[in-house]
Amino acid sequence: MIAYIFSFLFLSFNALNNKKFTFFSYSLTLIIFLIFIGFRYEIGVDWDLYLQIMQNAREINFNEIFYSLEPGYQLINWIGAQFNQIFIVNLISGFIFLSGLISYSKRQTYPWLSLIIAFPVLIIIAGLGFTRQSCAIGIELFALINIEERKYIKAISLIIFASTFHLSSIFLLILFIPEILKNILRPKFLFPFITLTLILIYYFYDSAQIAFDNYYSLYVINEFDLVWSSSGALFRLLPSVFAALILILNKRKFCSYIDKEKFSLYERMSYIVLFFLILVIVFSENAAFVDRFSIYFYPITIFVFNKTIDFKILNISRFDYHLIYISSYFIYTFIWLLLAVHLDAFVPYKNYLFI
Q1: What are the residue boundaries of the structural domains of the chain, listed by start?
Q2: Distance of alpha carbon 56 from alpha carbon 349, whole angstroms
Q3: Residue 204: CB atoms within 10 Å
Q4: pLDDT (average), residues 178-198
């Protein structure tokens, strides 16, 4: 538990001092969390599965990588397999994830607080537990930056790239539907869009069909009679639900202070999060399916909770806001660490550098 507490205190100290990111602090944070994520040992529910994926990659020829279901992640495993070291896979994956997370957090008004908000769900659950998906999330965060800057083709390309690490991230293209419809007849947008669509169909049609069949069998019809718990999914979804409600209920204030395009992006994310909440409640036995998709929308918490301070939704000081968020996320994080169903997969924390 000490490693989790130290990591949280490091972020909290910087957040309370309201320090900005410098090149040094950016690099130091990246190194600390790269060691935390990349050199972990036997941490995460699917540790044995990821180890097996890497070992299987030894039998794959290099050319076969690009015809696999998720070639981006397969390439990382092929590299790790050459040295027979899973920490190489985790280091590369951690770097992709953390680069996206820190870059996205750096754009917020309160970057250190942003990392605290990301800590329980993105850093611990995704970073330590969902290696493939963490890569996709890191790339997704770069895509969100590009959407905010209205670089839609680049953002769509990044989402497609993210799907080469975890195919489920292709679902994020739903966020682009209004922009696609608005720009579809513009030659500057149309030709790159058609090209990307054809590439997507050519490379991923068969993979998408296989992945859909696997998800449907495993999560929807529960072919193997597995028992899924909705409590964990609901617990992880709650911060996103609160953020979504804050944004929707304070629409006028958000629209007054931020760009309309940026607001529209997070408004769409808000309604999708609320839809996920309904699915978790109604289909509690299939909550794992929703859980794997809803984690892509967790960045809404980083964006909205930063804005609650900017807009002074509560009439309290910035320091008090920081205390509230830090205290709340400390309680949220360590309740999960103490009560998680798969607690033994995360506690005690072990690291290659200290065993």
Answers
A1: 2-354
A2: 26
A3: 19
A4: 70
